[in-house]
Amino acid sequence: YIFLFNKLSLQHQTNIMTLQVKHGNANCRTPQGEYYKNVLGTRCDIRCQKGYELHGPQQLICQSNKRWSGKVLCKQIRCPTLSMPTNGGFKCIDGAYFNSRCEYYCSPGYQLKGDRTVTCMDNKVWSGRPASCVVPCPSPEACTPSWSPQPPPPHPTSCPSPDVILKGPSPGSHFSEGDHKIQYTVYDRAENKGTCKFLVKVRVRRCGKLNAPENGYIKCTGDGDNYGVTCEFSCIGGYELQGSPARVCQYNLGWSGTEPTCTPMNINVAVRTAAALLDQFYEKRRLLIVSTPTAANFFYRLQLGMLQPEQCGLDLRHVTVIELVGVFPAQIGRIGVKLLPPALALQLRLLLRIPHYNFSVVVMDKHGMDKERYSFPPTPAQLFALIDTFPLRKEEMKLQAETGQSCT
């Protein structure tokens, strides 16, 4: 055990978490080729999977302040939204995302001009030329004037321009969803009259409303269920998304992908390293680590007494409590009802540089950054005020307000 202590203390000079990039990968190298890829001076080159683009620096460095030198994010490539051609439309396989293929079509009586199909490329540009729907040129014989029901008087040598009275929307008007009655009345100089009435029915192609998964959120563009709309799903902290993270309302009135669900996060305490344990919480949960040399410690008992009635507030803020009790080898760790092996609890203390013989509380954000430390029991109000200032928390509070999630 003495050998294990020395080895870990030499290799873990910081309390930073192993770097993980969602939809990407990090190729890390340490100054002296250490096994752990989160020691001081580690350099990681960031690359995103095909179909995703990097937001942030291409290289991150593990700094002396125990933090990575920046933040990175791999976002799915999206092309600009296609313009709907007048007197036509288009249907896409996967909205405006990378590799989606869209096919244009025209209403009866109109002809397609441009490329019929386009594809969203990795440079965020659509392949081909944008299409339009045009009226095909008629033959010259089709341009002779005709009158119905009565021809004009014989004395004019050519057809005069008729006077047109319009009732209803003018030509070129855009119609909202619903029924629209249109009437045109035409008079010529011979006082012949013609009336045309017709009904324009506008029906929006809709796939039906989607609901947020239990313990999750939904965010949709447009009306939420009309053709071309994209709905994105996410889960609250502590739950993992199973199924499609985004679904698109397609031309056939069906949603792309599969129905998503949010399943409880399964914490594996049988991992070999503390870094592997912390990696499971990356971008999912914040951590409140309570460490005490004995279970009888006054501060420890006071801290648990304050936290127990505030479980709703902790869950609302996606906080998992990890308890480290005792001194190695008579040391245990606990996450809820799951017990950590003594060696893993020891590694966690060494990795995060938590004192063995004093009460201590460590607050970590979803990116594994050490945000605050206390040598005394902080009140739930102090913890919640701190966590509510974290950048990701602001977006969470907005979503929770929209869905009515609260502890009141």
Briefly characterize the structure.
With 408 residues, the chain is an alpha+beta fold. The chain has 7 helices and 24 strands. One of its GO terms (biological process) is phagolysosome assembly.
Structure in words:
Residues 119-204 form the HYR domain. The chain is of the alpha+beta class and 408 residues long. It has 4 domains: 16-76, Ribbon (Complement Module, domain 1), CATH 2.10.70.10; 88-134, Ribbon (Complement Module, domain 1), CATH 2.10.70.10; 207-264, Complement Module, domain 1; 268-397, Glutaredoxin (3-Layer(aba) Sandwich), CATH 3.40.30. It has 7 helices and 24 strands. The strands form 8 sheets. It has a 6-stranded mixed beta sheet, with helices on both faces.
Sketch the major β-sheet.
Answer: 6 strands, mixed
Helix percent reads 10-25%
CATH topology of the largest domain: Glutaredoxin
Strand content: 25-35%
Shape: elongated
- Poorly predicted runs are 1-15, 139-152, 154-159
CATH class of the largest domain: Alpha Beta
Task: Kindly state the number of beta strands.
Answer: 24
The side-by-side strand order for the widest beta sheet comes to: 22-21-20-19-23-24
Q: How does the helix and strand content classify structurally? A: alpha+beta
Assigned CATH architecture of the largest domain: 3-Layer(aba) Sandwich
What is the residue-averaged pLDDT?
A: 83
